[in-house]
Amino acid sequence: MTTITESYVRETPRTARIDWSPYLVGAGIGLLSWIAFAVFGDPLGVTTAYSRIASLFAVPVIGPEAVAQNAYWKSMPLKWDYGVWFLVGIPAGAFISAVMSGTWRLELVPDVWKERFGPSIAKRFVAAFLGGVVIMYGARLAGGCTSGHGISGGLQLAVSSWLFLAVMFATGLGISALMFRKR
């Protein structure tokens, strides 16, 4: 049986593929960081914006009164500032980049996941959701995410950010080694 991903990959020509230079992209991220500081007076970061947007999704589940009384959302109310627009721009920019580079395809279950855990879309989505919950909790606990600590804090040479990066990479390598080890 042919899946959506397999049929799309076969039909998509790969002759127009563009590989992005990591040096150019790194310089672009550094420039964007400078612009964020100069124009908005804030570092790059998305977990605060993500948490603020979460209040919109919480309203139908727990009600507007509960959201209004929540201590976190009282201290970080939803506002459409540059951080929220930056968060919205990340997937939009990733999509545009993938289309421009000729690498975009619909892939619900990546091959590396399928080989290790099977082709179940539901299983993949549950794992992705739970992974997102864990990383979001960790980012809020650490006071920043990979962009807040990794980019902005790293550029400012903040010790907490360099410690965050070391722990993040070590944890990622360890978990990947456990999850995707050869049987």
What does this protein look like?
By secondary structure, the protein is mostly helical. The protein folds into two domains: 20-105, no CATH class; 109-183, no CATH class. It is 73% helix and 0% strand. It has helices at 4-11, 22-40, 47-62, 64-69, 71-75, 82-101, 111-117, 121-142, 146-155, 159-179. The chain is globular. The two termini are 27 Å apart.
What does the secondary structure layout of this molecule look like, with pairings?
Elements: H1 4-11, H2 22-40, H3 47-62, H4 64-69, H5 71-75, H6 82-101, H7 111-117, H8 121-142, H9 146-155, H10 159-179
Helix pairs in contact: 9-10
List its traits.
globular, mainly alpha, 2 domains, disordered N terminus, 183 residues
**Helix/sheet category:** mainly alpha
Mean pLDDT: 83
- Share of residues in helices: over 70%
What's the order of the H and E elements? HHHHHHHHHH
Q: Describe the biggest sheet?
A: none
Strand content: under 5%
Distance between the termini: 27 Å
Give the low-confidence spans.
1-13
Rg over alpha carbons: 19 Å
Extended strand count: 0
Helical run tally: 10
| Tally of structural domains | 2
Summarize the entry for a quick read.
This protein is mainly α.
